[in-house]
Automatic annotation (TrEMBL):
This is Methylated-DNA--protein-cysteine methyltransferase. The keyword DNA damage applies. This enzyme catalyzes only one turnover and therefore is not strictly catalytic. According to one definition, an enzyme is a biocatalyst that acts repeatedly and over many reaction cycles. It is an enzyme of class 2 (transferase). The active site is at C321. Gene3D superfamilies: DNA Methylphosphotriester Repair Domain (3.40.10.10), Homeodomain-like (1.10.10.60), Methylated DNA-protein cysteine methyltransferase domain (3.30.160.70), Winged helix-like DNA-binding domain superfamily/Winged helix DNA-binding domain (1.10.10.10). Residues 111-184 form the HTH araC/xylS-type domain.
């Protein structure tokens, strides 16, 4: 069985998605144009070729192996690649000297075009590089206050000459005053690159709190709830949980991991946590239904409530809501988009089939 081919959607659906530039198919497949020798994302804004001149591949590497070149407009290699070398080098420099103020002149001296950097950070972090730097410094100040530093010291160490300016910036970023910061829980976030498009991961000291695709419509509302309802102060950063989920996700998409080990922390109602616990029990490569989960909870008439709790799940893939389907076998809704849901199910089913074949 060919694992790559098993993960592709039906041909007619891929043609439709290509012609309509459907962004929900980001990373699900790539289009390769025989007449130009170029391959693209299905959402590429370039003029669409005739369907008979296109062939489809599951991975960018497959396109390259078939002799196609990456499109310069939609840059399909970026969908499966980590941050480019020039961004990685800059991030390493920031880690080495977090207090350095990066001016446009300094960026140009490092061979980095400021406008290009601004666009990259807006696309991948939702903010400019300089806004990211400010938030990162404020996150370090938050950590210092949590450890007992005075507000004056935190403001000075963050580069603020005015205490009122520091308070205003702090409250704007974290939705709390510096005085209340000692009682808040820092929630660090980072961007992860996956074959299905970029994701955001958030974790606190107890475990992973959120893992979502960046284009999920409910993402902004989820983050606001974590801030306002659960008292989190959100800041860019890294911790062991974020490093672990990045490694485990890569193994999962490679078909080498069937069970996630990253610790989770799941703020929510008691009923929601019960539903999420049942989600975690659905085996890799198998599916369940809302009705089945309701019955397991001793509430056979609560299918709709189970569906709502399933929709409030903030941790995609790890808590496998993609394995929940309708009673009639339909895929039903999925926050990351049904094409991604279908891809994940095909990925798991194909990996299971390969494992079975190798066992014989």
């Amino acid at each position: 069985m060919n694992l790559q081919n098993a993960m592709l959607p039906p041909h007619a659906e891929m043609v439709r998605a290509m012609l309509e530039r459907d962004t929900t198919y980001e990373g699900v497949f790539f289009t390769a144009v025989k007449t130009t020798g170029i391959f693209c994302r299905p959402s590429c804004t370039a003029r669409k070729p005739k369907p008979e001149n296109v062939e489809f591949f599951a991975h960018a590497d497959d396109c390259l192996s078939a002799g196609y070149r990456a499109c310069l407009r939609c840059k399909p290699l970026d969908a499966a690649a980590i941050a480019p070398d020039w961004v990685q080098k800059l991030l390493q420099s920031v880690d080495a000297d977090p207090e350095l103020r990066w001016s446009d002149a300094q960026l140009l001296a490092e061979g980095i075009e400021p406008l290009k950097l601004r666009r990259w950070f807006k696309q991948h972090f939702g903010m400019t590089f300089h806004a990211w730097l400010r938030t990162r410094r404020l996150g370090m100040a938050l950590g210092g206050i949590k450890q007992g530093d005075s507000i004056d010291s935190a403001a000075f160490d963050s580069g603020y000459e005015s205490l009122s300016g520091f308070r205003d910036a702090f409250q704007k970023s974290f939705h709390i005053t510096p005085g209340r910061a000692a009682n808040s829980e820092p929630l660090l976030f980072t961007r992860l690159t996956t074959p299905l498009g970029p994701m955001i991961a958030m974790a606190e000291r107890r475990g992973l709190v959120l893992l979502e695709f960046l284009d999920r419509p409910a993402l902004t509302r989820e983050v606001e709830a974590l801030q306002n309802r659960h008292g989190y102060a959100v800041a860019p950063g890294h911790n062991a949980h974020l490093q672990q989920i990045e490694t485990e996700l890569a193994q999962y998409f490679a078909g080498k991991l069937t069970e996630f080990k990253v610790p989770l922390h799941l703020p929510g109602t008691e009923f929601s946590r019960q539903v999420w616990a049942e989600l975690a029990k659905i085996p890799y490569g198998q599916t369940s239904t809302y009705g089945t989960i309701a019955a397991l909870l001793g509430k056979p008439g609560a299918s709709r409530a189970v569906g709502l709790a399933n929709g409030h799940n903030r941790i995609s893939i790890v808590l496998p809501c993609h394995r929940v389907i309708g009673a009639d076998g339909s895929l039903t809704g999925y926050g990351g988009g049904q094409p991604r849901k279908a891809f994940l199910l095909r990925l798991e089913n194909a990996a299971v089939q390969v494992t079975r074949q190798l066992a014989f």
